[in-house]
Amino acid sequence: MIRVMLVDDQELVRTGFRMVLGAQPDIEVVGEAADGASAIELLRTTEADVVLMDVRMPRMDGVEAARLICASPSSPKVLMLTTFDLDEYAFEAIKAGVSGFLLKDVPPPELISAIRSVNAGDAVIAPSTTRRLLDRVAVHLPASEALKRDDDTLTAREREVLYHVALGLSNAEIAQQLRLAEATVKTHLGRILAKLSLRDRAQAVVYAYESGLITPDRSQG
């Protein structure tokens, strides 16, 4: 059973999500909160696997709440709800540890699929979305002070895989580009995440840009 917490300041939105999720045999809504601060408080007494959280809320917004929630190694996964696709909070939300984004008007099947995917450890950010996200936030990326913690950690092949992940390619596309089995690409990505202490593919993309492995002008090729 996947335990889900709903965090949104609009009761009508929470009610709609609760009705959709409550009809699923493998999903249980274990709690609701109207803002980030209340969600943090509720998580102290309620165990959840996935937190479905709005970005814009009073008292404490979704990004700050996600940052506090994801700071714990045993924290639930956070799926961020947005009104507009790839709004200005997206980059900070990924850095905070969010595992994906959903529009508030997401069709029920996509909502359910996203919750199951995130619970299984995947990031809900499609390759095409990754590219648009990075185009949007490139101006906010640091121009210098590139992080070099991967220099002595990643193998040449792992750096190559990370580069293609940052371009927004799926595992299948990377496998085709590098002439590898898709399972091999998945293995490399798992090692990259472990070595760099990254939560998921989304944070790997941000890391690749921040570290200087890839720059916005190189992402177009």
Provide a brief overview of the structure.
InterPro entries: CheY-like_superfamily, NreC/VraR/RcsB-like_REC, Sig_transdc_resp-reg_C-effctor, Sig_transdc_resp-reg_receiver, Tscrpt_reg_LuxR_C, WalR-like. The protein is α/β, with parallel strands linked by helices and about 220 residues long. The chain contains ten helices and five strands, in the order E-H-E-H-E-H-E-H-E-H-H-H-H-H-H.
Mind sketching the topology for me?
Elements: E1 2-7, H1 11-22, E2 27-33, H2 36-43, E3 50-54, H3 62-70, E4 77-82, H4 90-96, E5 100-103, H5 108-119, H6 127-137, H7 156-166, H8 171-178, H9 182-195, H10 201-210
Parallel strand pairs: 1-2, 1-3, 3-4, 4-5
Helix pairs in contact: 2-3, 3-4, 7-9, 7-10, 8-9
State the order of secondary-structure elements, H for helix, E for strand.
Answer: EHEHEHEHEHHHHHH
CA radius of gyration? 18 Å
Q: Identify the overall geometry.
A: globular
Structural class: alpha/beta
The amount of beta strand, in percent, is 5-15%
Report low-confidence residues grouped into runs of 5 or more.
143-149
The main sheet orders its strands as 2-1-3-4-5
N-to-C CA distance: 43 Å
Largest sheet: 5 strands, parallel
Give the number of helices.
10
Q: How many β-strands, per DSSP?
A: 5
Report helical residue fraction: 40-55%
Mean pLDDT value: 81
